[in-house]
Amino acid sequence: MKVLISGASIAGPVLAYWLSRHGVDVTVVERSPALRKTGGHAVDLFRPAMEISERMGVLSEIQAHATGTTQMIVHRPGASRPTRLDYVKIMGAMSDRHVEIMRDDLSEIYFQAGRDDVEYLFGDTITSISPDGDVTFEHNPPRRFDVVVGADGLHSGVRRLTFGDNVSESFLGGYLAVVSVPKDMARDGEMTGYFKPGHMAGIYTADHLDDARAVYIFRPGRPLDYDYRDAERQKAQLRAAFEHMSPEVDRWLDEVPRTPTFYFDAITQLEMTTWSRGRVTLVGDAGYCPGPAVGGSTSLAVYGAYVLAAEMVRAGDDYAAAFAAYERTMLAPVVGSRKLARVNAKTVVPTSGWGIRALVGVGQVVSLLPLGLVQSLARLNTKGVRLYDTMPLPNWPASLTG
After folding, report:
1. Strand order in the sheet with 126-129
2. What number of helices (H) and strands (E) belong to the chain?
3. Measured between alpha carbons, how far is 292 from 174 in angstroms, rounded to an integer?
4. Which portions of this protein are annotated as coiled-coil regions (predicted)?
5. 221, exposed or middle or buried, with CB in 10 Å at 0-12, 13-18, 19+?
6. What is the tally of structural domains in the chain?
7. Rounded distance, CA 326 to CA 304, Å?
8. What is the pLDDT of residue 393?
9. Average pLDDT of span 229-244
10. Model confidence over 240-258: pLDDT tens digits?
11. Can you name the residues that pair with 71 across neighbouring β-strands?
């Protein structure tokens, strides 16, 4: 079987790894000329994704590249001094097994795990997909594949070619920006955050990084006149939203015009009833993005890629059966992630002073309690805070898991 995967970020390399090790001929096409270094923010891997990474033999490397954040320093309006929160306990409420890592680092690790057995086409993109599997590219000559998988993110080209533009997208009311700034603006092991109603600006780094990342999430009263491809306009909109929030945030903003890497996007949720059509299917954010920074999309993408790979190997040439089984397994986690993201989009960045005080207050309570008690209480909420820790790995034959 010949499989083409579009996208070399997270889901694409994970899927390629598992398919190739079971004898599938895999090609990955990636629009960027090399692995993306787009100022990616820190992402979370919860228990199922960590177990999958362990089975890939890369968990120790992932842990070695963890951000190492242990404390959060929170500045909020009206407070005489900042509040120190225990980040380890806060994340411990969400998962008994968790690691935070920069998205760029995670992508590189997954890519390296399978690169020797996978063909990668960088600097190219798919321009058409025929029902019988003929694929044309912007630069490479046409080729035929048995299956095409879109793992190319929220703005998926494969999704557009296969499903058109009539895909339900729900704007969750916010925007996310990530900016690379000088490393000395942050402290190892700490995230510093500033809040005001509808706005959160934070900064963090890690010992192995050469820079720091400033992260901005904001919820304007109405949608911006926004184009995800227009970086200069995005930079102006970011400054307009956060200027004069604090002298320190202004220092971060001053780095935006000269930053080597910049990311900006709307926090948008996809709501597709199916991710498959013919010999094409979608995985990760391309099919079921719950919302950047609010929905655990990275763990969901790793999990989805693993499920899809196992079902494709199990079904052999019957890709329709594989896609159907994949969608059945993923339905509950995807629906749950959508619900959780809609809640998180409102609670992570409150639009009132009272909401900010309540958010920080919950963090203070969690920080004071013993970690074991925090985790015991959190386990009662398997559809909320514990959603991503309770996604079961299917009971597959050893040949599909080892």
Report:
1. 126-129, 134-137, 143-144
2. 14, 18
3. 10
4. none
5. exposed
6. 1
7. 8
8. 86
9. 96
10. 999 999 999 999 999 999 9
11. 86, 190
Q: How far apart are the C-alpha atoms of 165 and 390, rounded to whole Å?
A: 33
- The answer to whether position 379 is within a domain reads yes
**Does the pLDDT value for residue 397 go beyond 70?**
no
CB 225 within 8 Å of CB 277: no
Distance (Å, whole) CA 294 – CA 272: 18
Across 34-38, 214-218, 362-366, 367-371, least confident range: 34-38
**Which residues, 6 or more positions from 198, have their beta carbon under 8 angstroms from its beta carbon?**
218, 219, 220, 221, 349, 350, 351
Domain for residue 57, yes or no? yes
pLDDT digits (tens, 9 = 90+) for 107-163: 999 999 999 999 999 999 999 999 999 999 999 999 999 999 999 999 999 999 999
Structural domain contains residue 125: yes
Domain span holding position 312: 2-169+269-393
Q: Measured between alpha carbons, how far is 43 from 206 in angstroms, rounded to an integer?
A: 13
User: Which residue, among 379, 387, 402, has the nearest Cα to 55 in the 3D structure?
Assistant: 402
- Cβ(316)–Cβ(309) under 8 Å? no
What pLDDT, on the 0 to 100 scale, is given for residue 221? 86
Question: 15, exposed or middle or buried, with CB in 10 Å at 0-12, 13-18, 19+?
Answer: buried
For the chain, percent helix, then strand, then coil, each to nearest 5? 40, 25, 35
Per-residue model confidence (pLDDT) at position 383? 56
Q: What is the CATH number of the domain that holds 43?
A: 3.50.50.60
In a domain, 164, yes or no: yes
**Half-sphere exposure for 277 (CA within 13 Å, toward CB):** 15
- The owner of tokens 């089975």 is 55
Beta-bridge partner residues of 177: 216, 264
Residue 377 is predicted with a pLDDT of: 65
Tell me the HSE value of 290 on the side-chain side, using a 13 A CA sphere: 28
